[in-house]
Design brief:
By secondary structure, this protein is an alpha+beta fold. Helices cover about 20% and strands about 25% of the residues. It is built from four helices and eleven strands, in the order H-E-E-E-E-E-E-E-H-H-E-E-E-E-H. The longest helix has 24 residues. It starts with a helix and ends in a 23-residue tail after the last helix. About 25% of the residues are buried.
Length: about 200
């Protein structure tokens, strides 16, 4: 009987620790200008205001939603959430179509929502539109594409905080969650263009 209680206690402790780690993994910090850049923007890990997502390690896919919680000092607070459109205007719904120059925020060097052409492709043939990759309604963010980045702004105590969802701490267009799963930290050399880590005779590029 005592062995079962100890086993149960160990299992519950492991479950609590894994959930705590998972909750920590989904904390998103605001972005601020990086005067020493590149990158142009960096995480403000000292900010009292953060976001958490309802789905840990969430990555965008068409018509998928995620709920955003605003936290101040680690405690959820009520705050308005706006989506920063490709044209840099804020909205609480959907954005107008972007111009080609506005569609890629990494290339443009702006903290704005992406509007990559096509859905789950970067096809930019005749008649291509550049609609924003995300919409927002209240605290629910909806992805309309595979990938992309949403830039949201929250106001807490009359101070604006700007976030990239999913978090992209080095502002390279690749979410931290994706880099952790598929990047060099997961398999050395995976994102090195001339490496051939799968031994198929072709480089990764």
């Amino acid at each position: 009987m005592t062995m079962r209680i100890v086993s149960l206690a160990v299992a519950v402790s492991a479950w609590l620790m894994s959930n705590a780690a998972m909750a920590q993994a989904q904390v998103i910090y605001p972005m601020v200008s990086n005067p020493a850049g590149p990158p142009l923007f960096m995480l403000d890990t000292g900010s009292p205001v953060t976001l958490t997502l309802s789905k840990p390690n969430w990555l965008p896919s068409p018509n998928d939603t995620v709920a955003i919680t605003v936290n101040s000092g680690g405690v959820p607070v009520s705050a308005g959430i706006s989506l920063i459109c490709p044209d840099a205007n804020a909205t609480t719904s959907s954005c107008s179509d972007a111009t080609p120059a506005q569609s890629n925020p990494i290339a443009a060097g702006t903290l704005t929502t992406s509007a990559y052409p096509g859905v789950c492709t970067n096809f930019s043939g005749t008649g291509t539109t550049y609609s924003a990759d995300f919409t927002i309604s209240g605290n629910t963010l909806t992805s309309l594409d595979c990938g992309g980045m949403a830039v949201v702004r929250v106001n807490v105590s009359n101070v604006n905080y700007t976030f990239i969802v999913p978090q992209d701490s080095d502002f390279d267009g690749v979410p931290d969650t994706w880099e952790a799963k598929f990047g060099p930290a997961s398999v050395p050399g995976r994102l090195i263009a001339n490496a051939a880590d799968d031994n198929d005779g072709f480089s990764n590029f």
